[in-house]
Amino acid sequence: MSVLSLTKMTLEEFHNLKYICGLLVFASLKSLDLLRMANLEELWTTTSGFEIQGEESEAQQCFPVLSEVRITCCPKLNVKPYFPPSLLSLSFEESNEQLLSPCSFSLLPRPANESSSSCNVQSAAPCLRELQLRNMMGSSSSWELLQNHTELEILHIQCCNDLKQLPDSIRNLTSLRVLWLTECKRLCMLPEWLGELRSLQSLYVFMTPLIDSLPQSAKRLTSLVSLQICRWDKMKELPDVIQHLTSLQVLNLALCPALTVLPECIGELSALRRLQIQHCHALQCLPQSLQRLTALHELHISSSPGLARRYNQGVGPDWQLVSHIPDVRIN
């Protein structure tokens, strides 16, 4: 099989490779992984123009159908002139912060001064739907690329420990359906503009020990179906704003050591189907309003001894509070 007919390509640990130049057109390539290449400086996504009978041809896309790119541990890499327009999914891990610059997605030539403020133009990757950022350095102000990707649907931010607050550019992601925030240990709060993400269906906030509440604007997340909270060390009470999440079907609370109260207003979550509580040692009881949740089908409690004693099937003193739920698992 010809290399030009490949649909997936992985380049890994080519330690002396510095440039990947646009000499060939990979007409069938859909997935490209660039992994652990510390000296790689440039990936060209277009061919250079060449002369035919004295006339220079137009540059061609080297990756006309490329839909998925993963870049891991490439600290010097820049993409030139821009990422392929066909891109659907993009993942960066421990790589050059400049990859987050709007210039990496600009259809216009790079200016002599590549400051991000001069690159507020239409994105070269208008189809981008999923972006994963892991162990990327830089403060939230350096993530301006997000403001030009309003069609983005899935955003994962993981182990980005320079982040103390979410980039304001995320508020422009009006099509965002899934937001994952994982192990960003200096992230101290969720912004008040979170409620502007009206298309958001799933919110996962894991291992962020400084966060202790949801903003009041979260009441506007009327499309939210799944909320999963893990390792909010300072949260003592689930915030009352949760009562407005009337589309919520899944609520998962895990590793919240200070959590002592679930509010009675949880009974307003008429669509709730699954409630999971894990490793919440300080939580001793469930709200009486749980009996009103007629859609609740699953209650899973694990490593929460106070709840286990109270609601153990058939023998717990308050078993009747949860006995109407078809699937109760307590261990």
From TrEMBL:
InterPro entries: LRR_dom_sf, LRR_R13L4/SHOC2-like. The keyword Mitochondrion does not apply. Keywords: Repeat. The keyword Magnesium does not apply. Residues 139-308 form the Disease resistance R13L4/SHOC-2-like LRR domain. This is Disease resistance R13L4/SHOC-2-like LRR domain-containing protein. It comes from Sorghum bicolor. The lineage of its organism: Eukaryota, Viridiplantae, Streptophyta, Embryophyta, Tracheophyta.
